[in-house]
Amino acid sequence: MVSPTPDEDRRARLLASASVTLRGLSDVLTPLGERFAAAGHELYLVGGSVRDAVLGRLGTDLDFTTDARPEQVQALLKGWADNQWDTGIAFGTISAAKDEQQIEITTFRTDAYDGVTRNPEVQYGTSLDEDLVRRDFTVNAMAVRIGPGGEQEFVDPLGGMDALLAGVLDTPAAPEISFNDDPLRMLRAARFVSQLGFTLAPRVREAIVAMADQIDRITAERVHTELDKLILGEYPSEGIDVMCETGLADRVLPEIPAMRLEIDEHHQHKDVYEHSLTVLRQAIDLEEGDPDLVLRWAAILHDIGKPDTKRNEPGGGVSFHHHEVVGAKMVRKRMRALKYSKQMIEDVSRLVFLHLRFHGYGDGAWTDSAVRRYVTDADELLPRLHKLVRADCTTRNKRRAARLRATYDDLESRIARIAEQEDLARVRPDLDGNAIMQLLGIPAGPDVGRAWTFLKELRLDRGPLPREEAEAALLEWWNSGAGTGN
């Protein structure tokens, strides 16, 4: 008897594991399969759902394809699904919810593209093979037939399992055709590298290099959605590498490849690009719980201001003065172009702006006032700032690394000690607006705002004050004429 090869053995084990996973969903799959079979229709679990079942990472989203038309799918789901939606019906998709599962059922399609946008002219197909060959990658072109009585049959006409076993991303059709149909698939390739740890097939990489400029056809919103998925992957630095090596990053996020600064024999500095990838990996190691999108973006972008601030110094050194200020501005500009929310832009840019401030701390040389300002300026981002600053230590000098860790430990201890005495999370003036107006005898207006700001600065400098002391300081400031705005 011939023993199975390692790949054959792994294939068998993965398929067996996927079968067990899917049988655990029999409460959903069995009645759904029986409904379609009774109506004379085929039903297949397909795409990422099959891939993730094989990899042991199936979530609560289930994608299906069928020969039934959308109206027929709606009728078959009626009375069984908890809810259903027709928001994707123009693309042949009906969505539904059953128990804790989110379900999408799409009619077989053989789409046509205009070569200008990524929006297909939806054309219904007549077979599973036609539907699978239009998909982005072969690992997403596997299917499982869902029959009556819980019957399952694995279907893989395009070698998706071979690609999965090899950890390779390849396209069902020629990559040039696939990417011309939908250029977003090029960015999805980098995203799947990040999520799955796979590599690109040589022909896929070559096609992306040749066609990278076609990503310009894709809207900023869709690009930023894919970038977020990439950043949140298990191997984001590998995904970013793919973007930079193929030229995609030059089109959608040029600030990252720009960090690959030339290093000459006379002016030495750390490679900013590789340093940033290391900071990203170290920030991920410091995460607690779910992946932190804000922290990860701040980690990869924290030094993007360095290329614009690089100066060669006498003696062979290199400086990047105020790169955190320039970098924060660059973050805001790029993330606005990618249509990120105002809150996301504010959070990431503020972390970039603040990430270098700790290096002025020295060996506890900051006053309590400086510590309060550090906490206040970071505000709700302080836990993320702690992680970013710690991740930014990539020196190979063990003694220096230990000294930096100890210094930051000391800063965090000081923050904790001061927080025991004061509410550092909400540093506010000792007098509110009403008290200011009453004390100074002024109406609501800009003068009140200036007085409030003065009291907040006083609070940061001196900590909480007795009311009488705060009132005396405010009166002295006001009577000096400083609060009139003149």
From TrEMBL:
Keyword flag Ion transport: no
Cofactor(s) listed in the protein's UniProt record: Mg(2+)
CDD domains tied to this protein: HDc (cd00077), NT_ClassII-CCAase (cd05398)
Domain of life per record: Bacteria
UniProtKB keywords: Magnesium, Metal-binding, Nucleotide-binding, Nucleotidyltransferase, Transferase, tRNA processing
HD/PDEase domain segment(s): 268-434
Enzyme class: transferase
EC numbers: 2.7.7.72
Keyword Hydrolase set for record: no
Organism the protein comes from: Rhodococcus gannanensis
Molecular function GO terms recorded: CCA tRNA nucleotidyltransferase activity
Xref: Pfam families: HD (PF01966), PolyA_pol (PF01743), PolyA_pol_RNAbd (PF12627)
Coiled coil: none
Record SUPFAM superfamilies: Nucleotidyltransferase, Poly A polymerase C-terminal region-like
UniProt name for this protein: CCA tRNA nucleotidyltransferase
